[in-house]
Amino acid sequence: MKYSLFIVVFASLNAWAQPDWVEQVKPDSSAYVGIGIGDTLANAKLDAKNQIASSISSTHSFEISQTVETIGDEGTQRSSSHTHTNADHILLPEISWPQIASEDGIYYVMGKVSKTELVNLYERTLAISSSEFSGQTGPGALSFKDYLRLFEARDELALSAKRAAIISDSSAAGKHYHAQFVELLTKLNGYQSSSCLKVNYKGHSYEGKIFKPMVESALSTAGVNVKNDAACETLDINASSESSRSGTQRVDAITLYFELGSPVVRSKTVALEGKSSGSKKAALINATDVFNRHFDRSNSLMNFLLDPATSDVVIQ
């Protein structure tokens, strides 16, 4: 009886044994290797893909971890696998699958990515990205137009620098592209820290005495160097307003108009209200409080002015 029980337990444990190539992965200097486990073949392959991405770069993160649970006649087996990755900056060429196996609803796969194919893919991708910034590359200083181009593409520049870093040790082209994108990011940051902006109010002097300091303060909060200097880039502002009354309260509906650069490269409008139980001046001062609460350190006025995707804002 004891002998029979031992045979049953041994057979059950043997039934759950993983393939040898899962437990003992043979090193391959020519490829990145990932072992995947999942409750479906697709999930197992995705898990292997994540493992390969992890081998290529440690800067990405895994987000969703799934527990694979299979119930069979002999009991329940649990194993963990990753089913989602946030490694958007990791490029992968075609993955080969030299090993695929399944056991009691659990899938095991081995995926491989050729290191040579990976480098070739990155070099082609970086060459395309690099060509888009040929006008901003080199020893010359950035113009305001160049600065706007780099500012709009700052996420793309950072992504390209990360990708170039991945192959820089094994590719002369990768090292070149990495230096180029780091240089562009350095130029972008340098322009931001050394440039200045001059605010000109084009409307009535009465409103200008209130709105010009308001805008200058919001720009300074955003880290912009505001100066009354002809050498600075310009920001022209104007305003229109309509007054009404709600009971004893005065309400001024105000639209602010912004034109950035000379010639103008960005035109924006901001609509808001100022309220007061007293004078127009008090209503306009209330509007400045509304403006400053909206455009704070976490919601920069300068970023709004530079963003090409947004033209109008209504502050409630």
TrEMBL record:
Keywords annotated in UniProt: Signal
Source organism, top-level taxon: Bacteria
Signal peptide: 1-17
Species this protein is from: Photobacterium aquae
Record-given protein name: LPP20 lipoprotein
Record lineage: Bacteria, Pseudomonadati, Pseudomonadota, Gammaproteobacteria, Vibrionales
